[in-house]
Please model this.
Amino acid sequence: MTRFDRAALAAALALAPISTAASAEAMREHVSASVSVHDIDFSTSAGRSAFQARVRRAARHTCGTSYDLRGRSDMLRCRGEMMKDGEVRLAALTRARGTELAAR
Model:
């Protein structure tokens, strides 16, 4: 094997995990869940905690369970992403409700 062949092989091997990861990312299934908020008072810590508990419950239900290593990794990533999205939505809802109350 020439030096050029070894360099080409090394480059191909170095790029292989990147393309595999990229194709795995493209195959991810989009999931969503709805969380009822009509009865939550976002101005209290109890209300915000209730919202977070509902998001956690929805994430567990939507993302499912898995006992193998790869499936567990996907499940945990799904739950983490849903929790982060819930935090962003909580901040938006808290601001919106605060603005709504201030306008009264």
Q: What stands out?
A: The chain has three helices and no strands. The helical segments are 3-26, 45-63, 69-103. The chain has two domains: 1-30, 31-103. The CA atoms of residues 93 and 99 lie 10 Å apart.
